[in-house]
Structures are given as structure tokens and as C-alpha cells.
């Protein structure tokens, strides 16, 4: 036992910092960054659209109305559903965007979540156990990373049929190395730290050390990367669907809507335009939120948010 | 140095071999090209003859053995689609993509280094905020959508630029303009971060104390040290374009390697897929080698060997 134990063990309550609800603390940090707050609000709205959209607007999204073919946007006479115009079959674009959010977001969420879980597990094995198994895992990650990911997706989606599950599988596989390498690097560093060594000396088992001591440090990093990755995977899925090898009609995603609108570009620009705006706003919100998460989870940077959210003017020389 | 190049070549050759084997079997799993090339009512004999002629009749292992022997003789087989040697088809498309990648990266690097350095000089300033918004938007925009809107505004509405092809310099404006966006946003952030670190280091303070001019401090002293991470990311992005800017090349009808690859996969033209992957992989290997040599030239502390 070293120097730090001079403090009396039975300290009065006042000496301890007040217990704060971590969610409340996170909310206060979020309120400090206006841009991140707007981004989080928008993502919440999109999540609600993805969950409830198909139930609420599924019917107008598929109702064809040839009188409304390629109806222009901002024409309130047709009702608020047609504020963004109508597509080539007279279906409301707004309703279709809301309904498509379910496929778009759930494919990205499922891909990122499974890549994160598998990558984290393999990373823990490679970092904590090492040995020939760890070496094998790292070589496998190298192979995945050296393979052009879009090409891999194209080939696999041709081999299997382009279903949602296969799309998730392909996107997840290409993203696993990111989480794997991050986890392994963190584990290699953390397991040498004093508190892990202390836990081991006190007889803690390997599973306990991993779950109680290593994971709590690794997970915030992975979630921050995951937010950024979510945007990347969404763009990748959109590109695949745009090329016609992602999700197939009658299912819709935003990327597929852009592809379908491409043929009507000269007569009705709004068909391809609005789904793209939905993609940009969502990925931009994710990028903003990820930047906020990076600051909020970094003890060295958090003060920027705690001090009223003003970004201090720090000159290069300081 | 020679030792280093030898070691790198060996490990890359192993990875390359793995890649080729993977592609060979994955491609063949996508289906039988016979049904695609012969009419629906083709007789069984005609089908058998087609398979025989293109060597799809033998067991997979035998096909693979023949493929390996042929590749070692630099023979990549024949393109079914074009009835010409596959390597010839690939080497025709590759220079187009190479030019596209070189032009894009040159513009990206010049812009990102200039703007990133100025932004890093006053972090938090107007210029810095403006550049971070630009790079954020660039990282968020789907390239196929930007390409379509670009065509819509600049080609369809205004009629300034052609929509597809490669005839004149004007044909290059839209593809390069779209390809620039994402690497620019990314590299701008890297330049800014590296320059902030470099500008707050001791040797910059020394230079400032000696009275070196501001411009020389930024673009000579700091920039040289900030270049290492920039080169890493730039190489990564260039590799991405070389691997086939599939989306952009498809939209703009650009006769590069990306369009060739996707067309070949769609048409089950196995020989061309294999040749294209091998050629781009070798090109990317050479580029990475050049990047490592550039490291050593920029930072004499790095010694390969």
C-alpha cells in the first residue's frame, strides 16, 4: 500500500462528491453544445420515423395515384403529404422517405451493432490471450482490410441473393477490422495498468477482469467510433442500393429512391433530390454527434463543454 | 533499403496470392456464365460446347490449377465479353482511372494543405470554422447524389458541362469534382490537426524567436513535419480511387477500372475480374512503397531496413 491511503477511510459524506445521475450529466453536456443538440434531436426524429413511420404512413407511401404523377414540390393544394412532391407513380415522396427510413436505418444499425460486438469479442481474444489465435485473428483482419470492400460486397451479394440479411452481413464483415484493431490496441495497453494487475493479484478470474475492468474503458471508445461508422455504413448501403445490388424493390431505402429518381432527372428533379437530402442530414447529424461524444468522453477535453460550451480561443503558441 | 523493399514485396506477394485465390473461387460462386451468353433456347450441345471452349467444364480445382500456371506465364485468359485477352482489356481501362486518381489527389492535396494550414494558424477563427463546416459536409454527402445533382444543375439546367464520356477536358470536371469531396474533407482535418501540433512545438517557437517570416514558419518548418500523417491518409484515399471509383465511373460513363470491374462482375467475365484485381493490387502496392520512401525522405529519423 502506498502513499495515497493517508486519507481517513470513514470520511464524512460531505467530503465525497455528490452522486450524479450519469444520464443527467450527459444531458447537461449535450445542452452545452447547440449543434450536437440539434443533431441529437434530428436523429431522435429519424429514429421515431423508422419505428412508427411504416405503421403510420405505409398506406400513402404505396398508394399510386396517376393523376399526381411527378407532382412538383411545395404545392400545398395537394395536401401536406405532397409537400415534397410525388414520384413517377404519384406516390407521396414525404411518406416514402419516412417509410424508407426504417430499412435505411435498421440496415446500418444492425451492421454497426454486429460488427461492433464481433469485432470487440475478437479484439478481446487477440489482445488478452494473444498467442497463435490472436495472430490468426489479426492476419484475418489484414486480409479483410486489403480487399476492396465495395467489390467484396458486389461479389457476395451476387453470390447470395440481395436480401436485407445478406446486405447486413457484407457491411458488417467489412467494418469488423476497425473495432477489432481498436479493441486489441486498448486491451494491450489497459491490461498492463496497475488496477488490472492488482485485480489479478487479488485473485480475479480472467472473465471478471475483462468484464469489470477492461470493457468499461473500451466500450465508450467503440461507441464513439460506432457513431461515425453508422454514417459511413449508411453511405455504403445507399451506394450499393443505388448500384442496384443492395435492397431490391418493392422494399425501399433512401439510396434506392435516389436511383429510381435518376431516370426522371430532367423532368422531375425532386424524385432524386429529397432522399439525398435525408441521407446528408442524417450522416451530418451522426458526424456532429460523434464529435461531441469524443469531447464528452475524453476527461482531458470535457471542460470545453462544462464551461458553458464556449470554445475558448487558444492560440497556436500556447 | 533494398532489404526493406524485398521484405515488403514478399509479404505483399503472399497477400496478393490470397486475394487472387479468394477472387477466383468467389467469382465462380456467382453463377454459370453459360446462361448469360447463350440464348435461352440454346441446345444442350451448344451449352456443353460453350463450357468446353471457355474451360468451365472441368472440375473447379483443375480450372484453378490451369489458371495458376497461366498467370505465372502472364496469361490472364480471354475476356468472354470482348473476345480479347483479359489483360489487354484491363490495361486499356487502367490508365483512365490512374489519370482520374492522380488529378483528383493533386487538387485535393493542394487545396487541403493550403486551407488546412491557414485554418490551423488560428484555431477557432472564422476560417477554421468555415473549413470544419466544409469538411463535415464533404464527409456526409453521398457521392452518387452529389453526382446526380451536379449533372442536374451544371449539365441539364445550365448546359455547361457534358453528362458523360471522356472526349474533352470539360468531361473531367464533374467526375473529378465529385471525387474530390470526401478525400478533401478528410485530409483537411488531418492537415489541420497535424499543423496545430506542429505549430505549438519548440522548433516553431525557436524559428519565431529568430525572426523567421510567418509564411516560412507555416509552410516550411511546420508543414514538413505535419506531412507524415497527411501522406498516410492521402495514400489510403488514392488507393480507394484506384480500386475503382465504381459509383462515379458508372454515373459518368467513365471508361475506367471501376466500371470495367462492375460490368465484368455483372457479366460473369471471370478472366477480366481476376486481371483487374491483380493489376490494381500491384499498382496499390507500388504506391505504398513510394509512400514509405517518401516518409524516409521527409523524416530522416525513419530508416527502413
First-to-last CA distance of chain A: 38 Å
Helix content of chain B: over 70%
Mean pLDDT of chain A: 78
Distance between the termini of chain B: 5 Å
User: What oligomerization state is this entry in?
Assistant: heterodimer
Helix tally of chain A equals 11
From the helix content, strand content and strand pairing of chain A, which structural class follows?
mainly alpha
Q: Characterize the main sheet of chain A.
A: none
Radius of gyration of chain A using CA atoms only:
24 Å
Rg over C-alpha atoms of chain B, rounded to the nearest angstrom? 24 Å
Protein model, in words:
The complex is a heterodimer of chains A (318) and B (305). With 318 residues, chain A is mostly helical. Helix content of chain A is 68%, strand content 0%. In chain A, helix 2 crosses helix 3 (93-129), helix 2 runs antiparallel to helix 10 and helix 3 (93-129) runs parallel beside helix 6. Residues 1-7 and 309-318 of chain A have low confidence and may be disordered. Chain B has 305 residues and is mainly alpha-helical. Helix content of chain B is 76%, strand content 1%. Chain B has 13 helices and two strands. A two-stranded antiparallel sheet of chain B has the order 1-2. The termini of chain B are close together. The model of chain B has no long low-confidence stretch (mean pLDDT 80). Chains A and B meet through helix 4, helix 5, helix 8, helix 9 and helix 10 of A and helix 1, helix 6, helix 7, helix 11 and helix 12 of B.
